[in-house]
């Protein structure tokens, strides 16, 4: 099953934050139901015109088609997409080429690919594909990266509870794309903070997908401006949209893993404006 329409989230600005209730924040920035068995479920945000969501074959073959919201005959007519599997082993077929994705593998598909479908691998169940798509002005080759094969960066310190391993997959020195920058960060046991100190980057929108979080655990995701912060309480396999003006950081009640993905003005991973802890309000 594939939805015939994509729900839309309109762009927001910092002046709206002080008047928002908790439910307003959740309705605007949180995507609670990313993975639904037997469906491709997507959300369109007008922040940098990103489309994100999940595909869960659940024993079927799911086809990624065109949608009226993107005015295209097929999904990748004017777009590119990064795909990371967060479940059991599955396959993505792109114009007849079959790619096998184990958990944590990343597949990039460029503009112009007409037929894309998702399935569980033979004899496997439980594939869950996370999709992050942005407009593309040209075509780059498809590329599959297995877990641990990207650019690996060790960050943080156990003493400040933010020791983490960052895997860069789609970026300026890795898999080539028009806009997308994408990877996976895994927190080490005993660490709960991601991206701290926090930062903003006015030139890109970033989205997080939190996963490998125990059912009874949560991540407190910080957002907003550094002098007007807010938070969202996020469960396993939920996603959050972070506009370019918003800082983004979080702390969990246990360790977890998250996918970070960006699109916008440039692809320089380190192009960010730090928000020191002492400046946060």
UniProtKB/TrEMBL annotation:
What is any one GO biological process for this UniProt entry?
D-galacturonate catabolic process
Q: Does the keyword Zinc apply?
A: yes
Gene3D superfamilies in alphabetical order: Jelly Rolls (2.60.120.10), pectin degrading enzyme 5-keto 4- deoxyuronate isomerase, domain 1 (2.60.120.520)
Signal sequence span is none
Regarding protein family, the annotation reads:
Belongs to the KduI family.
What is catalysed by this protein? 5-dehydro-4-deoxy-D-glucuronate = 3-deoxy-D-glycero-2,5-hexodiulosonate
Q: Name one Pfam family in it.
A: KduI
What protein name does the entry list?
Answer: 4-deoxy-L-threo-5-hexosulose-uronate ketol-isomerase
Top-level EC class, please? isomerase
Q: In which pathway does it act?
A: Glycan metabolism; pectin degradation; 2-dehydro-3-deoxy-D-gluconate from pectin: step 4/5
As recorded in Swiss-Prot or TrEMBL, the protein's gene is named kduI
């Amino acid at each position: 099953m594939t939805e015939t329409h994509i729900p839309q989230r309109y762009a927001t600005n910092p002046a709206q934050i002080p008047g928002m209730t908790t439910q307003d924040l959740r309705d605007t920035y949180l995507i609670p139901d990313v993975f639904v068995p037997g469906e491709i479920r997507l959300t369109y945000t007008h922040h940098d015109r990103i489309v994100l969501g999940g595909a869960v074959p659940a024993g079927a073959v799911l086809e990624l088609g065109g949608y009226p919201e993107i005015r295209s005959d097929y999904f990748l007519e004017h777009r590119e997409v990064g795909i990371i599997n967060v479940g059991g082993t599955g396959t993505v077929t792109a114009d007849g080429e079959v790619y096998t994705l184990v958990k944590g593998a990343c597949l990039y598909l460029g503009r112009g690919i007409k037929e894309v479908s998702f399935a569980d691998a033979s004899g496997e169940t439980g594939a869950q594909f996370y999709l992050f798509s942005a407009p593309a002005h040209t075509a780059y080759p498809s590329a599959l990266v297995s877990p641990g094969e990207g650019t690996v960066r060790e960050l943080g310190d156990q003493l400040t509870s933010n020791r983490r391993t960052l895997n860069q997959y789609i970026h300026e020195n890795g898999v080539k794309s028009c806009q997308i920058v994408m990877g996976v960060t895994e927190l080490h046991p005993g660490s709960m903070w991601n991206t701290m100190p926090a930062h903003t980057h006015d030139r890109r929108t970033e989205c997080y997908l939190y996963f490998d979080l125990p059912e009874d655990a949560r991540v407190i995701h910080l957002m907003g401006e550094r002098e007007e912060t807010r938070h969202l309480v996020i469960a396993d396999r939920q996603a959050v949209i972070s506009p370019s003006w918003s800082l983004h950081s979080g702390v969990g009640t246990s360790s977890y893993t998250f996918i970070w993905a960006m699109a916008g003005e440039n692809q320089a991973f380190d192009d960010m404006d730090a928000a020191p802890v002492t400046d946060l309000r």
